[in-house]
Amino acid sequence: MRHCRILKDGVATEVTLATADTQDLTNETVLPATTGTVFGIALNDKSLYAKLEPSFSEKPHVNPPTRPVLHIKTDNTHIGYGAAIPAPADGTPVYAGPSIGIVIGKQTTRVSEAEALEFVGGYTVVNEVSLVETSFYRPAVKAKCRDGFCPIGPWVVDAADVANVAALSIVTSINGEKVHATNTDQLRAGVAELVSYLSSFMTLEAGDLIIAGTPERTDALYLKAGDTVSINIESVGVLENPVVNEATIDAAQG
Amino acid sequence: MKRARILVDDQLTDVTVNDSHNAVLADGTVIAETEANWQPPCTGKMFVLGLNYADHAAELAFKAPEEPLVFLKAPNTLLGHRQNTYRPDQVDYMHYECELVAVIGKTAKNVSRAEAMDYIGGYTVGNDYAIRDYLENYYRPNLRVKSRDTCTPLGPYIIDAADVADPHNLALRTYINGELKQEGSTKDMVFNIPFLVEYLSAIMTLEPGDMIFTGTPEGLADVQPGDEIVTEVEGVGRLVNYIINESQYLKSLTTEA
pLDDT of B167-220, one tens digit each? Predict the structure, then answer.
């Protein structure tokens, strides 16, 4: 089953869709598919990690990370399927961040890796949009927490409906043209390890979301105003959003 | 006016706080400070300033930054007044950080420094505990250090901004078991509240209830199970917290479930 949140008469309403056809959503205002805290995992892509690994023994890092590297996508970043990603008015480059999203199904504290999957309710598609990632030393609030920088959706697919979450293709297209392909088999820490680790010091609540990992922000993932970006994850869904100059959005909102 | 939230019959309930620090329900019923089950007085985004007092930066062997060092916390970490924070077994250094917390009162985007104070609804006290053993040089200070369950006591209440004459001239003090350990003044902030509102609202939209933890001065010390930690901001509030050990914490989880 696919669980979608749409705006009906001004009220957030959950609807269940039987098929993976987004045609049903064409005339709807689709809300972010999840409502809880959103955690991102940095440096969890194998080739990105391998590329940066030599620098991890140098200043300012000194040592490689011993645990998954976490960040938070604040609530102002969350938008739904079809909503506009605001590009900075000054033309600062923006990059897509295709990732599978792990949606917590019930509250858990300190769950073991062996039991972690019992607390996963489902999966969604996330576009963890970012300005260029110049540093992993200090928190990337400026690069990652701009309004609308985290499309989530279009829905949450029940975990039971995703056969092998560790081997799903992820294809990113811009303006209908395929620009990037990866797979969930490129994640360093997998779903169970991430859920267990986060819950070792943070109680996870139903509806919380973990963005499992994004690839290197190469030119292929560069977004500019006027583009439409879509991310297709096998067995999960297609998340599509237009990119709009933020000045246009601000003007429209008065 | 001082506004707080307490649990009454397991229901999160809005209260006001009187001059004796007791909670007052809407119907006028008074619940003594020591009897009330205090909860964090608000929920929202949490922005926390690192190295925002020059003396504290020096204490950690850092130069004060040229632009605000902002990190985020998740709501799991919040805790109310007079609640328990756990210290994991096997760690060497867990310290408090007494901070003035500015709470956003109305939606703010691209607000100028000159107008920024109009967007502050009130103030509260935050204790931004850190476990230094877990520091790593990736998105430092990392969440395992700063966004832990029970590690951010907040409260006891929010005091209206109108009732705080000058938020940039308030004494900050921390006591362990009654002994003064940390003392400073908000006048020594590197980046003050209007600067921070302008800086953050240029990046993103701020909403009512969002919190800016404005940083801590020098005077850090280790805390141990059994300690009573009081963080106090002059004219704002006095936030009490108790340190328990890990097995006491694990037991409390089982009891709640």
Answer: 999 999 999 999 999 999 999 999 999 999 999 999 999 999 999 999 999 999
Chain B, nearest residue to A66 by Cα: B136
Q: How far is CA A99 from the centre of its chain?
A: 5
Q: Which domain holds residue B16?
A: 1-39
Q: Is residue A52 less than 8 Å (CB to CB) from chain B?
A: no
The ranges assigned to domains in chain A are: 2-12+23-252
Question: Are the C-beta atoms of residues A107 and A205 closer than 8 Å to each other?
Answer: yes
What pLDDT digit, counting tens, does each position of B73-106 carry? 999 999 999 999 999 999 999 999 999 999 999 9
| d(CA A150, nearest CA chain B) in Å | 13
- Please tell me the class of the A2-12+23-252 domain: alpha beta
Residue of B nearest to A143 (CA): B203
Tell me if the pTM is above 0.80: yes
Residues 6+ apart with CB under 8 A from B43: B75, B78, B209
Interface of B with A (CB under 8 A): 45, 47, 69-77, 109, 136-144, 147-149, 203-205, 207, 253
**Same domain (yes/no): B132, B79:** yes
Do the beta carbons of residue A178 and residue A171 sit within 8 Å? yes
ipTM over 0.90: yes
Separation between Cα atoms, residue A190 and residue A176, nearest integer Å? 30
Whether residues B54 and B16 fall in one domain: no
Q: Are residues B117 and B17 in the same domain?
A: no
